[in-house]
Amino acid sequence: MTVFRLVLSDLRSNTGIWVGALVVTIATAAAAAVAAAMLETGLALVAAGSERDLLRAAGLATVATLVVVLTVVAVAAVLGSVTRLTIDLQRRGYALWQLVGVPSRSVTVIVRLQLAVVALVGSSVGCLVVAPVVPAVLHVGLSASDGLRDLHERFGVVSGVAVVVSVTAVVVLSSLRSSRRAGRVRPVEVLRDPEDAQRGTGWGRWAGAGVAVALAALMTSTLAAAGVRAGAQVVLIGPLVTAALVAVGPTLFPAVVRTWTRIVPAHRSASWFLARNAAASAVGRSTATVSALVITIALPGSITAGFATLGDAIGRSTGATLTGLAPQSFLLMLGGPLLVSLSGAAATVLMAGRTREQEAALVEAAGGSRGVVVARAAWESVILVGTAVLVSAVVLVVTSCGQAIALGVSVPGTVPHLGLAAAGPAALVSLVLMVAAGTLPLVVGRRRSIPLVLAAD
């Protein structure tokens, strides 16, 4: 009974954290539903068995593979980061549970059950909300593809259940390490330093990054061997490199933050100094936010860069012009992943609202003005977006130059294109969203007394 009361109290006191996690799982389920609908539609074509249906199923399989891969990259990066952040933000509360007698093993089990329930509810809501419109979305997305315009798109109960189970499984699996650590850590260590000092890139992330890099290298070598005939590979190379960098984000992103923010001397601006230290020290929330932002910027940029570089090679070899992706196809491939990444980026900022409020109260208690507090929040958002832009730039340069060099084996003179037409607007939208999410709660929110904020757990 005591444990039950603790769980209810936790849900009430950390409503913002759990609502943020719930919103991200809803967005994830919505994105996964589109991929599941494509698979179900393709299986229905195969079951029909006619030669025409089999040809259409093959064409749909090509598009579905791209959508599934891009969705998996976004979901694995964003949902996993948000899940771990959900636990990290509540480590102090879990430590207090142990102090009142809750066994460490029970803490681990409760954390996993909480996340499983949130994932189950969120993914179910997401499927129920989008189920009526998924066939229509799929129909519009496929309208630009020859032979796929008059399909009978479908999204049934089996696909919905598969989405719910998959999203819940991702949440639970990504929580295993963090929940185990939350239950095992000594309470005195957490109460002294709520930030997880042991946070880093585990062996699973390093292995995943290695696999992604190996696949990207293999696809690039295929371009070198087969030339423009293997042009479909360009869509996946960039996302694989993006996935590799996001996988090692807990190690990479803090180092990038500390390095590039040294450009502005600390004595020039107190708000910049505070924002830089907050972004560099709060590794957990910074990594979660930057991971989502890198997905938002690098995925559309790298895909656009790949098509433009391939188009340059085709133009030099045949004189033909390769038109870029139609808007419908672009939204079909990237609409879901971008929904997940943008919702994840905003949620990671809002989920840490109470922590940020306490940090702002400390600044004011030390004599800082309200303007400094708001400027600090804005600068922290700029720092996080700037870090994501730098990491995304590495993705764009590496993938576009690698593709140009590979295609240049059979088509000398192929020029790399960086995909800035897509990456630039994505970065701008990310900046506006992040600054708004970071500063609006401070500007329009109800102010509480500094002692009350600092005394709140």
Task: Write up this protein.
- The two termini are 22 Å apart.
- Helix 2 packs across helix 5 (104-130) and helix 3 packs antiparallel against helix 13 (283-318).
- With 457 residues, the chain is mainly alpha-helical.
- It has helices at 2-13, 15-48, 51-88, 91-99, 104-130, 134-141, 157-184, 187-192, 203-226, 234-247, 249-260, 270-281, 283-318, 327-351, 353-365, 370-408, 420-444, 450-455.
- The protein contains 18 helices and no strands.
- The mean pLDDT is 81.
Helix-strand topology string:
HHHHHHHHHHHHHHHHHH
Q: Average pLDDT, to the nearest integer?
A: 81
Structural class: mainly alpha
- The counted number of beta strands is 0
- Envelope shape: globular
Low-confidence parts lasting 5 or more residues at pLDDT below 50? none
SS summary, helix count: 18
Helicity level: over 70%
**Largest β-sheet summary:** none
Determine Rg (CA atoms, Å): 23 Å
Span between termini = 22 Å
Give me the secondary-structure topology.
Blueprint: H1 2-13, H2 15-48, H3 51-88, H4 91-99, H5 104-130, H6 134-141, H7 157-184, H8 187-192, H9 203-226, H10 234-247, H11 249-260, H12 270-281, H13 283-318, H14 327-351, H15 353-365, H16 370-408, H17 420-444, H18 450-455
Helix pairs in contact: 2-3, 2-5, 2-6, 2-7, 2-14, 3-7, 3-10, 3-13, 3-14, 5-7, 6-14, 9-10, 9-16, 10-13, 10-16, 11-12, 11-13, 11-16, 12-16, 13-14, 13-16, 13-17, 14-17, 15-16, 16-17
Key words describing this protein structure:
81% helix, globular, 457 residues, mainly alpha
